[in-house]
Amino acid sequence: MIKQLRIKDYILIDELTANFDEKLNVITGETGAGKSILINAIDIAFAPRVSKDVIKHDKEKAVIELVIENKKHDLSKLFEENGVDNFGTEIVLTKEITQNGVRSRVNGTLVNQEFIKQLKSYFLDIHSQHQTYAFMQPKYHINLLDNYAKESYGNKLDAYREKFKEYQHLQSQLENLKNASNVTESQIEFLQFQINEIDSANIQSPTEDEELNSELEVLENAEKLKELTGTSYWAINGDDGSIIEALGKIKQNISKAASMDKNLEDLESNLIDAIERLKDVGSDLRDYSQNLDNDTERLNEIQERLFLLDKLKRKYGGTLESVLETFDKLSKELNAIEFSTQNIEELEAKIESTHKELMHTASEISESRQNYAQVLSVLIQEKLEKLELPKARFEISVAQKDLCSDGIDNVEFLISTNVSEDLKPLAKVASGGEISRVMLAIKSIFAQSDDINTVIFDEIDTGISGKASQSVADEIVELSKYHQIILITHQAIIASKADKHFYVRKSQRDETKVEVYVLTGENRIKALAELAGGEINEQSIEFAKSLILQ
Predict the structure, then answer these.
(1) Alpha-carbon separation of residue 390 from 382, 418, 468, 537 (angstroms)
(2) What is the mean pLDDT of the chain?
């Protein structure tokens, strides 16, 4: 459950801390006072996107923090996978909204929105005006029915959906193969020509052109290289006045000096090493110069090879690597075309087999849906009678359609609120008050099996009054035995059932502010009296007291 809500610099709130009861929490206040501000803040804490407009005027950021008490769910694996510290029964969710973006933290650790989405699925169900609209849409009805019957066929439905994904993939493959098989003979011939052109070049490596260009440069400058290396060799090892001869004389002098001063022995040793290394260099220069030939035949060969490679590069991508990649791609295309007929036949057989398997499973799921639709229809109708809709008839229609990811069923909620009227889709018949009661009926039926901790209702009492208000109030109290309930209401009867009563007031002295109070004692009686009679007088006060005593 939501144990505590802390808000700072959010819309019209400077700073606020609200501690919620584990059962029924009611929010009341004057019209336009900002009653939805607490519910919206809770919703925003779990939201993937938040407008920077929620930041209070002249403030840098808004902060919303929820302290959640977890007694139902083992979240150790989820927390471990996301690197979040697990503090046991208490979870702290912090949403920070700045001008530059939004950050979410759980127990102090920065988390992504997928983690927040999963967290919400365990703890929060918000019934708002938007969700009322969604509730009326048939695509939502099948989810409600499946959720109700999840213990019966939930695993089978999950397996079916995985199989359907495989079925869709097979169909996609078949379409691609058929497109490939429609290639003309001339297109195949051209494809084969391109492959042969690249293959016949026998490219040695992606860097073959670079290696050949290096060799070409050597061959084109062979005479100059021979001259430079030969001259260098004779400078080192010549008969007269060579570097080696000069160093030999220096070595003799140093050797004599070292015999007189041992501190020169290292210099002598270094000089000897230098002479030996220079002799090696001279030897290498001699070998290089002698082996360097002006190979005109090899020169022409390289030039012709580079011309061919450049031609391929111009046609197939600019680099030899691209040419080789194109070769692989074209080869795969041709292979797919050559074997497309065989593959098409195999895929068509597999698709037919998978379709039969899916139809069999979908038929089983459909039969279960029809059975549970009858059961749930009866339960909802019984609840509606308790909620002051005694003439209502409710039915869940299960009609067959083409195979899809949910099976072969169209599921739609039908209702008639008057004896003389036929059953019609929920969206076309029910008023706001009736919709609210149908939603409440379903919530109540799901209550004992639903593991969600907190259910929030934003004005579920829309369009109801009198005896219906009492029935709705009783049902909400019953629901609060299984869930923490947070709701906004305009009904004194419903508000009187609260375990904790929040009152929202808007003040406009120096600036507009929203303030939230917890009502107890006389203050609560006055608030109930105002809700009941529109004004506080002796009669409304007495009525408010009678509500609390019920």
Answers:
(1) 9, 9, 11, 35
(2) 85
